[in-house]
Design brief:
6-stranded antiparallel sheet, 11 helices, alpha+beta, 354 residues, 2 domains, SH3 type barrels
């Protein structure tokens, strides 16, 4: 049985890498030809653009290659009557499909692990190169709510982990009680440290003749605890990119601040759960395939298989956009369809394979 498993995996992985490399080269080359006029003259930046674009495309091509490789493999096994030979040797359907499922799951896990690294921001980086902003490291006019405070940064420098011209407004019962003004702030030890702060305090109870503003000065203050510069940088973006680790961190942080997390959950689910749509598709391709190549319509099978995979992938891609746009709850948009797909595949697996 080990020989048959090795044979299956060799065939499958050969087709997988052929399809993956072909798709990568096609999309990278096509995009490069489209954007050639917009790319900077620097060869280093062009190389970085190809690298970032290659990984961004990998998030699309790798899942598709996993499914298409199985589609080609099973077609070859049926056409050459290899599948019939396996069954005649006592190999069960489970022994044929399980190694493929395990291999596809491992490949998907590798993609997910890559999404925990800075490569998850590849789309953002390649867009900055196209706009000649790769070395630009600043954001302007950022206002955040933190506990009872509103924090304003005139300039934020995420890579340097610093901000300039800071205003912190302490509000209680819709009344402004305190204003903190400072020129600089730095992010260290999971806190933003405000340097040389001027504090203007208003009395809680105002009296026309006696009340006055109190002005004090502090060398150091801290605020926005656990708000990483990268997270603040993403707050006002319309097209937000998060790595898996940053998405989890941001969700936990926003929940403490009673802020909406639906958009970030949509990004997280699309990176962690959606890639596993390949598993039920592999099962369904195997379920609806034939044993013998005598009456097997290869062209029809491949055409329907490719069309079905692309349609389903397109639907999931659309649902991802809907979830990230806060139109529908993320769990309803992504997790429920995946659950239904897995359930249907499992029912067919029990009926026709087990």
């Amino acid at each position: 049985m080990k020989i048959i498993t090795k044979y299956l995996l060799n065939k499958y992985l050969k087709y997988f890498f052929i399809i993956l490399i072909s798709l990568e080269l096609f999309f990278i080359g096509f995009d490069y030809l489209q954007q050639m006029g917009s790319l900077p003259a620097s060869a280093n930046l062009q190389l970085l653009y190809l690298l970032y674009n290659g990984f961004f495309i990998l998030t699309i091509t790798l899942p598709l290659s996993i499914v298409f490789a199985w589609l080609v493999t099973i077609t070859f096994l049926i056409k050459e009557n290899t599948l019939v030979s396996f069954y005649s040797l006592g190999v069960s359907k489970v022994q044929v499909i399980v190694p493929i499922l395990l291999t596809s799951s491992i490949l998907t896990f590798i993609l997910i692990l890559l999404q925990t690294t800075p490569l998850a921001y590849s789309y953002e980086q390649k867009s900055k190169i196209l706009k000649n902003q790769f070395f630009v490291n600043e954001k302007s006019h950022i206002l955040l709510k933190y506990n009872d405070n509103f924090v304003y940064f005139e300039k934020l420098y995420p890579l340097e982990k610093k901000a300039t011209n800071i205003r912190i407004f302490k509000v209680k019962d819709n009344q402004l009680l305190e204003t903190i003004i400072a020129k600089k702030a730095y992010y260290q030890n999971k806190k933003w440290y405000v340097i040389d702060a001027k504090i203007i305090t208003r009395p809680e109870n105002l009296y026309w003749d006696e009340s006055k503003l109190t002005i004090t000065y502090e060398k150091f203050l801290y605020t926005l605890e656990a708000f990483k510069p990268e997270i603040i940088n993403n707050v006002y973006k319309s097209k937000v990119q998060y790595s898996i680790s940053d998405a989890i961190y941001t969700i936990l942080l926003f929940q403490k601040q009673n802020l909406s997390t639906n958009k970030i959950k949509g990004i997280l689910y699309s990176k962690v759960f959606v890639p596993f749509f390949v598993v039920p598709l592999i099962i369904l391709i195997f379920v609806y395939s034939d044993i013998s190549g005598r009456f097997f319509k290869i062209g029809q099978f491949i055409s329907i298989g490719i069309a079905s995979v692309l349609i389903l992938w397109g639907i999931l891609f659309l649902l991802q956009k809907i979830a990230v746009a806060n139109i529908v709850n993320s769990e309803l948009a992504l997790l429920v369809p995946l659950f239904l797909l897995f359930s249907y595949a499992w029912i067919q697996f029990e009926r026709r394979i087990l």
